[in-house]
Every structure is written in C-alpha cells, then in structure tokens.
Amino acid sequence: MRPSGRDLNEMRAVSIETGFTKHAEGSCLIKMGDTHVLCTATIEDRVPPFMKGSGLGWVTAEYGMLPRATNTRMRREAASGKQGGRTVEIQRLIGRALRAGVDRVALGERQITVDCDVIQADGGTRCASITGGWVALRLAVNKLMKTGDVISDPLVDPVAAVSCGIYAGQPVLDLDYPEDSEAGVDGNFIMTGSSKLIEVQMSAEGSVFSRAQMDQLMDLAEKGVAELAASQKAATA
C-alpha cells in the first residue's frame, strides 16, 4: 500500500491554471498533488552571444524554491550569493528538456526564458517544472504566432516529465515525498507527447534493479506522460 493510498500506476491529481500572472507572455500554476510550481515564459528579441547571427532561437530555464516550500525554512540562495549545485543541475535539465521539443529555426533568432518557482514541494518538483514549463512556453509561442512574428509553429511536440521508482519492492508511478525519500530506486522520465524519450535519470538508492524492473518503470512513465500531455493540451486549447 502506498502512503497516499494510490494504485501503483496512479498519478497524483494534476491541475494546470493558465494565465496565472499578469505580465509574463506565458504563465501557469501547475499542481501535481501537493507539489505546486509557478511557471512563466518571457520572450526577448535577443539570443546568447554565441548564437548571434545563427538564425536559431534559444529556450533556457531558471529554477528556484521559496524558503518555505519545504517542511523547514531554507535560506534563499540569493542570501548566500550563489546557486546550489542542485538548483543549477535542475534548471539545466529543464532547459535541455524544453529545447528538445522546439524547432529552433522556426522560432527565429529570439530567446524564451522559462522561470520555474516552487511554491510548495512534495516530491517531483523538476518533473512538475518541465511539464508546467512547456505550458508556459506554449502560451508564449501562441502570442508570437498571433502577432505574426512566428509563422510556422516551433513547438513540434509537448514535453512532460514524471517520476517512477521502486517503493516497498513495487514499481510505482509519480512518487510523492514520503515515497521518494524511502524508494530503493527512483528516476525521472522526460518524454514527448508522442512517447519519444528525451532524458532518463535513474539511480539505485539502497537496492539495485533489474532490466525487467526498468521496463516496468518505462511502461509506467509512458502512461504518466500520456496523461500529463493530455492535461497540457487541455490547458492550452
């Protein structure tokens, strides 16, 4: 039995509220169970220096957690003068994941920055950030297409992510914090809406896992991402 009472292949409740902030070109509040992330997308008519004159667009991301997103207060990273290694790793992951679903030629020579701010954390914050980040990106691109700044849709496929792991000896979908903190194996699966893999992060944390178990987790992830992609499409329709 999972702590939440969910079935092994059952996602947490997912909701995506679009237009959550006033100023960003695209924004949403995504809730995956008790993990809540605010995602905003900002369009800029510039690209990083190494891309100037290339004709290619760029999508990047930043990630952060509010001090009381967790059980105890965390010090703001700005107060220490630098980002932690975990933050840097996650925001690079978000950027890589979102770029995988973008036709950068069609986007044109501009940059879209996706900011993911964790309001409340209960496991799977990077997965929620990627899933909600794509929604914010979709909304921002819709504005570019509406104004005619972009002619051909640069978003070739939704991008979403979900965690899976081995908890109490069983493969489970969409780990919350009580499961994530005790899982013998856990991983993050980033996929397109058409079930193509973008990135898989897997690690054994107390017990090894077999190829058969890996296949079970892949099947769970594919099911979860399909559900998330359906939620993304409904939110941006």
UniProtKB/TrEMBL annotation:
A biological process from GO:
rRNA catabolic process
Entry EC number(s): 2.7.7.56
**Keywords for this entry?**
Nucleotidyltransferase, RNA-binding, rRNA processing, Transferase, tRNA processing, tRNA-binding
Q: List the residue ranges forming a coiled coil, or say none.
A: none
User: Which Gene Ontology molecular function entries are recorded, alphabetically?
Assistant: 3'-5'-RNA exonuclease activity; tRNA binding; tRNA nucleotidyltransferase activity
Catalytic reactions of this protein: tRNA(n+1) + phosphate = tRNA(n) + a ribonucleoside 5'-diphosphate
Which class of enzymes does this protein belong to? Answer: transferase
The answer to whether keyword Transport applies is no
- Is RNA-binding one of the keywords UniProt gives this record? yes
Which Pfam families does the record cross-reference, listed alphabetically? RNase_PH (PF01138), RNase_PH_C (PF03725)
Q: Which residues form the Exoribonuclease phosphorolytic domain?
A: 10-140, 157-224
- What HAMAP family would the database entry show? RNase_PH
Q: How does it assemble?
A: Homohexameric ring arranged as a trimer of dimers.
Q: What's this protein's function?
A: Phosphorolytic 3'-5' exoribonuclease that plays an important role in tRNA 3'-end maturation. Removes nucleotide residues following the 3'-CCA terminus of tRNAs; can also add nucleotides to the ends of RNA molecules by using nucleoside diphosphates as substrates, but this may not be physiologically important. Probably plays a role in initiation of 16S rRNA degradation (leading to ribosome degradation) during starvation.
**Could you tell me what this protein is called?**
Ribonuclease PH
What gene is this protein translated from? Answer: rph
